[in-house]
């Protein structure tokens, strides 16, 4: 009789007591799908934030370069500006950025309208940003 007692106790231990719960395959699959959707959303948010940061940095550089070029134009004054179109770049500090300058002859009040275009790289193509000022 002693040999049967351990078998009976092992079979009782191996069976789960009533009320105990385990995860089913469906529950595990649903949790995995929800986790994957959440991770996909987080990765999309990081990707968009990275793109917005690049665009913002590029806009800041374009604005600063335009301020620099417009300050040069203001220093020249209306007499120092010849009518027509000019082109150039910003040197080795910003080799991918170019500028174009359009200006007219002075009007009756010796005011010259100047349009400055900064051409900047963005997402593999060139983007133009226009700035205008009057010089007298």
CATH topology, what is it called?
Answer: Pantoate--beta-alanine Ligase, Chain: A,domain 2
Q: State the strand order across the main sheet.
A: 1-2-3-4
Taken together, the total number of domains comes to 1
Largest sheet: 4 strands, antiparallel
Range of strand content: 25-35%
Give the full name of the CATH homologous superfamily.
Answer: GSPII I/J protein-like
**Helix count, DSSP H or I runs of 4 or more residues:** 2
Q: Could you say which overall geometry the principal axes of the C-alpha atoms support?
A: rod-shaped
Helix content: 40-55%
Classify the secondary structure makeup into a structural class.
alpha+beta
Second CATH tier, the architecture: 2-Layer Sandwich
Which tags fit this structure?
136 residues; alpha+beta; Pantoate--beta-alanine Ligase, Chain: A,domain 2; four-stranded antiparallel beta sheet; 4 strands; 46% helix
What does this entry show, briefly?
The protein is α+β, with helices and mostly antiparallel strands and 136 residues long.
3D architecture notes:
The mean pLDDT is 84. It is rod-shaped and about 100 Å long. The relative contact order is 0.11. The termini are far apart. The protein has 136 residues and is α+β, with helices and mostly antiparallel strands. It has one domain: Pantoate--beta-alanine Ligase, Chain: A,domain 2 (2-Layer Sandwich), CATH 3.30.1300. Helices cover 46% and strands 25% of the residues.
């Amino acid at each position: 009789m002693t040999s049967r007692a351990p078998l009976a106790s092992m079979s009782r231990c191996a069976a789960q007591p009533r009320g105990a719960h385990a995860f089913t395959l469906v529950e595990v699959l649903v949790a995995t799908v929800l986790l994957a959707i959440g991770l996909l959303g987080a990765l999309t948010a990081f990707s968009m934030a990275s793109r917005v940061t690049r665009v913002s940095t590029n806009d800041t550089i374009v604005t600063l370069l335009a301020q620099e070029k417009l300050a040069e134009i203001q220093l020249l004054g209306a007499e120092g500006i010849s009518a027509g179109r000019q082109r150039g770049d910003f040197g080795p500090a910003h080799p991918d950025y170019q500028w174009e300058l359009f200006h007219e002859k002075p009007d009756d009040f010796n005011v010259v309208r100047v349009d400055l275009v900064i051409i900047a790289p963005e997402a593999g193509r060139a983007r133009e940003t226009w700035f205008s000022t009057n010089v007298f």
